[in-house]
Amino acid sequence: MNNFSITKLPSTIMQEIAARHKLVRKNHNLSQAELATRSGVSLGSLKRFETTGQISFESLLKLAYFFDRLSDFDGVFLTENQDKIAKLFNKKR
């Protein structure tokens, strides 16, 4: 990957998601400490996420769950023919 690609780099996406998360947190009038306690994500992880974009996948899912945004992850790694593939394996012979 290079800096001149039209696709976003993983680091860019991490930072954008962290910035959107921080905005959502603030719109809910939650401090980092309160969100950490209520979501089950450590305060250190939350602070690191909001400043660098780095967070464990499990902690990211916990935050998404807390804000009722877990369904945002439903489409990750789905194939276009997922339903067709599932039907093939569910057919009785």
Reading the helices and strands in chain order gives HHHHH
Query: Which ranges are low-confidence, i.e. pLDDT below 50, for 5 or more consecutive residues?
Result: none
Helices, by number, come to 5
- Rg calc: 17 Å
Main sheet: strands, sense, barrel: none
Which structural category fits the helices and strands? Answer: mainly alpha
| Overall morphology | extended
CA distance, first residue to last residue: 46 Å
Give the % helix.
Answer: 55-70%
User: Beta-sheet strand percentage?
Assistant: under 5%
State the total count of DSSP E strands. Answer: 0
Notable traits:
extended, mainly alpha, 93 residues
Overview in brief:
The model has no long low-confidence stretch (mean pLDDT 89).
What features would you describe in this structure?
The protein has helices at residues 10-27, 32-39, 43-52, 57-66, 82-90. It is extended. The termini are far apart. Helix 1 packs across helix 3 (43-52). With 93 residues, it is an all-alpha fold.
Task: Give the SSE layout.
Blueprint: H1 10-27, H2 32-39, H3 43-52, H4 57-66, H5 82-90
